[in-house]
Amino acid sequence: MSMLQVKDLNAWYGRSHVLQGVSLDVGQGEAVCMIGRNGAGKTTTLRTIMGLVARHTGEVLFQGEDILNEPIHHRFTLGLAYVPEERRIVPGLTVQENLRLGLVASQNRNREAEVIDGIAETFPRLRERLGQTADTLSGGEQQMLAIARAMVSEPRFIMLDEPSEGIMPILVDEMFELFTRMKAKGTTILLVEQNVARALEVADRAYVMDQGLIIHSGNAKDLLGDKEIQERYCAV
Ligand SMILES: Nc1ncnc2c1ncn2[C@@H]1O[C@H](COP(=O)(O)OP(=O)(O)OP(=O)(O)O)[C@@H](O)[C@H]1O
Ligand SMILES: [Mg+2]
Questions:
Q1: 10-residue stretch averages of pLDDT, the chain, 236 residues long
Q2: Burial, 99: exposed, middle or buried (Cβ in 10 Å; 0-12, 13-18, 19+)?
Q3: 10 Å Cβ neighbour count for 64?
Q4: Where does ligand 1 bind, in terms of residues with CB under 6 Å?
Q5: Which of 43, 208, 211 to mutate to test the pocket of ligand 1 (most atoms within 8 A of CB)?
């Protein structure tokens, strides 16, 4: 069953027609990755799905409901979460306070202690740093915090935009292990990544974007073997 269906999505920044009819589908429990060159429109696709791009046309169905013109908070309530490219953690707040912020709009807010314990177990690095202010975390730890904050609401569906960017390999390993565990627990994932090999390892399927269009889609394993497409459309 489809969890997310995007149909003929168009989006504009000013006069620039950035998405030119993007259609994609993410099944319940699937991990799907989206790859493509810089400027292809990957971030804009996630932002439009999340309701952050003002000018758009098309359809975004979440569990069958058209959410494209719904207010953002309604999307959160439905179980959608988004971890943007720029990690929007609050630098002056502690790790614990940042996690608490993720709970504010969530139905889990009455279970704070339990939820934060669970998150601390999933992210041992954060457990050791719950009282530390977020700006004193390393870049990789900040990214983990941004992901953890999205997860406190236990989303059914999470979109992540280049989570491994600028992060040291050992943390990238941890992060991809986390995605595998999230998927095993039933979370549906839409992942934008430049780290194509790693992304294709965790993903079931992949979409390749170029110039505002999906130009290829298929099984992640097949794409992993398709060096031609990777070289043409995924080089940074
Ligand atoms: N706020 C904005 N205002 C105007 N143009 C924008 C804005 N954000 C993005 N664009 C343009 O839209 C196009 C798509 O950008 P987008 O950020 O979606 O690409 P991307 O595939 O995520 O690239 P990257 O891999 O570099 O993150 C680019 O040409 C970009 O310059
Ligand atoms: Mg981007």
A1: 95 97 97 96 96 94 92 86 88 93 79 85 89 92 91 92 88 89 94 92 96 96 88 72
A2: buried
A3: 9
A4: 13, 16, 18, 36, 38-44
A5: 43
Domain boundaries, the chain: 89-154
Report the candidate in 178, 189, 208 with the shortest Cα–Cα distance to residue 27: 189
How many angstroms does the Cα of residue 27 sit away from the middle of ligand 2?
23
Q: Give the type of residue at 153.
A: S
Supply the pLDDT for residue 87.
77
Give me the pLDDT at residue 166, please. 81
What is the distance between the alpha carbons of residues 228 and 150, in angstroms, rounded to a whole number? 35
Q: Which residues contact 112 (CB under 8 A, 6 or more apart)?
A: 100, 103
Which residue's entry shows tokens 């941004």?
146
Closest residue by Cα to atom 27, ligand 1, is 38
Per-residue pLDDT, 235: 60
Specify the ligand 1 atom closest to the Cα of 209. 21
- Amino acid 154: pLDDT: 86
**What is the layout of strands, in order, in the sheet containing 157-161?**
80-83, 157-161, 188-192, 31-36, 205-210, 213-219
- Give Cα 197 distance to the centre of its chain: 17
- Residue 169 and residue 156: Cα distance in Å, rounded? 28
pTM: 0.93
List the shell of residues around ion ligand 2, using CB closer than 5 Å: 43
Q: How far is CA 149 from CA 156, 158, 167, 201, in A?
A: 14, 12, 18, 24
